[in-house]
Design brief:
The chain is α+β, with helices and mostly antiparallel strands. The protein has two domains: 169 residues, no CATH class; 93 residues, Alpha-Beta Plaits (2-Layer Sandwich), CATH 3.30.70. The chain has eleven helices and four strands; from the N terminus they run αβαβααβαβαααααα. The protein has a four-stranded antiparallel sheet. Helix 1 packs antiparallel against helix 6 and helix 1 crosses helix 9. The chain is elongated.
């Protein structure tokens, strides 16, 4: 029972650190995917003189990805039966050119306003209209949640790391007498602390398995998948194969260096 408590004292802090790392990786992918959706649904419509070259617009700002002329013939065809040919010719002569502007990335309101000001300064541009199918509020809320989680995750990781090292120090003191006897017989430091490293790496493996199992359960949850589909994000982006490598590397690295730090500190205190 005592051995189980010792293992849990190492596994739980390490589990918290790995969970924060994986959650942040997933949250970043969700933000990126949602930003891509916003960018695709975000369109600026520019009203300008017919003499204006679309290339003059595309080169005016690095935020602009593509400029496409909007065909006005469809509008004229709709009213063709209601007006005479002479009236249509007059409308066609005074009708401005309409252009659709796509962006390279989703930008905040201030950046869009700067883009509009730059476009309006181009000679021949009459007006710029912004149309978006989604609201900015959700995106701003996601960014706020990301910032808050980074702060909270960092604090949790630091506290968990301190608890991890504290538990290893306790283990070291419990085995102090045995290690001193081994030192008298000339045993090297790595041999005296071999049990600590073995325990640390074994618990790192269990923490890694626990985090992967928890994430697989959450990712396959119907509630989580439904939530992602509601904001038009594929659930497959949550868990990637690269995440397993990152979690495994972080788990074993944190355990190994924590154990090494405790051993070095213990050696200096002798």
């Amino acid at each position: 029972m005592r051995s189980i408590r010792h293992h849990l004292a190492l596994i739980l802090p390490l589990f918290s650190i790995l969970f924060c790392i994986e959650y942040l990786l997933q949250f970043n992918r969700v933000i990126d995917s949602y930003e891509t959706n916003l960018k695709e649904n975000y369109t600026l419509v520019l009203v300008a003189d017919k003499s204006l070259d679309p290339s003059d617009i595309s080169h005016s700002d690095i935020l602009i990805s593509k400029v496409e002329p909007i065909d006005s013939k469809s509008v004229l065809r709709k009213i063709k039966g209601e007006m005479s040919s002479k009236s249509l010719d007059k409308i066609r002569a005074v009708m401005p050119a309409f252009m659709s502007i796509k962006l390279r990335r989703y930008a905040d309101i201030e950046r869009i306003e700067r883009l509009k000001s730059r476009l309006l300064s181009i000679k021949g541009v009459r007006s710029v209209h912004v149309f978006e199918k989604v609201h900015n509020r959700l995106y701003v809320m996601l960014l706020f949640m990301k910032t808050s989680f980074i702060a909270f995750g960092t604090l949790t990781a630091v506290i968990s790391l301190l608890l991890l090292m504290k538990q290893m120090t306790i283990w070291q003191f419990e085995h102090k007498e045995r290690m001193q006897i081994m030192a008298l017989f000339g045993a090297p430091v790595w041999l005296r602390s071999g049990a600590l490293f073995k325990t640390a790496l074994l618990d790192a493996f269990f923490a890694f398995i626990a985090v992967v199992a928890t994430m697989l359960y959450l990712v396959n949850s119907s509630r989580v998948q439904e939530l992602l589909r509601n904001i038009k994000i594929e659930p497959e982006i949550l868990l990637k194969l690269n995440d397993f490598a990152v979690l495994a590397a972080a788990s074993f690295a944190i355990s190994f260096f924590s154990a090494a730090w405790v051993v070095i500190r213990f050696k200096e205190d002798q």
